[in-house]
Design a protein that fits this description.
By secondary structure, the protein is an alpha+beta fold. Helix content is 36%, strand content 22%. The chain has a four-stranded antiparallel beta sheet, with no helix packed on it. The protein is globular.
Length: 96
């Protein structure tokens, strides 16, 4: 998966499966660009981690690591991706 921005591009390889794996790279968008940041999976099950973090927040009566606003933003990103794929046009996340 590749997400292109004005200054950088996110390139995700092997991250869309059910197992904890893959690499996320951030690269500059200009021609001849160098890799800016590389994040490799630390082999944890992301779904299990999410559920355990939420359970800890309930047990300890604390805020969860991600609030509702971050969840909404994530869904807007997904919706923008779907709209862009369907229309073949640029879709700004802020417009979704």
């Amino acid at each position: 998966m590749e997400i292109n921005g004005a200054e950088r591009t996110l390139v995700a390889q092997g991250v869309l499966g059910q197992t904890p794996s893959g690499v996320l790279r951030v690269v500059e968008t200009y021609e001849g660009a160098q890799e800016y940041l590389r994040i490799e999976s630390d082999c944890r099950n992301m779904y299990q981690e999410e559920i355990e973090a939420f359970a800890r927040a309930i047990i300890n009566d604390t805020d969860p690591p991600m609030d509702g606003e971050e969840g909404v933003w994530s869904q807007r990103v997904v919706e923008a991706v779907y709209q862009s794929a369907e229309t073949g046009k640029l879709v700004r996340v802020a417009d979704v």
